[in-house]
Description:
- By secondary structure, the protein is mainly beta.
- Helix content is 0%, strand content 42%.
- The protein has strands at residues 5-9, 19-23, 26-33, 36-41, 55-57, 60-62, 69-71, 77-79, 88-89, 91-94, 101-104.
- Strands 2-3-4-9 form a four-stranded antiparallel beta sheet, with no helix packed on it. A four-stranded antiparallel beta sheet has the order 5-6-7-8, with no helix packed on it. It has a three-stranded antiparallel beta sheet with strand order 1-11-10, with no helix packed on it.
- A hairpin with a 2-residue loop joins strand 5 and strand 6.
- The radius of gyration is 13 Å and the shape is globular.
Amino acid sequence: MSAFVRVAALGDLEEDTPTLVEVDGVPISLVHTEGEVFAIYDICSHANVSLSEGEVEDCSIECWLHGSSFDLRTGKPSGLPATRPVPVYPVKIEGDGPGAAVLVSVTQES
């Protein structure tokens, strides 16, 4: 069973702007876009830099250093030079409105 941890309030997330959070020592880029919230590992698989400093467009996040893009739903690279995916994590929203809690789990299912 996955342990979900509260990382933010929904109202704290700016649309299409990544927010860096940490869950159990794991850096995560939290993105509110297209009506959903996504959690993706914050470190680019190509160049060990923070994805939360990149730009969000069409449900993907672009690494600011070399332009690699990753699908927020799957973590798969959608633009070179990255060829390896980055992990994505389950997100739950509890409550309604701007005060709704955003929860993320980094626990791997066995």
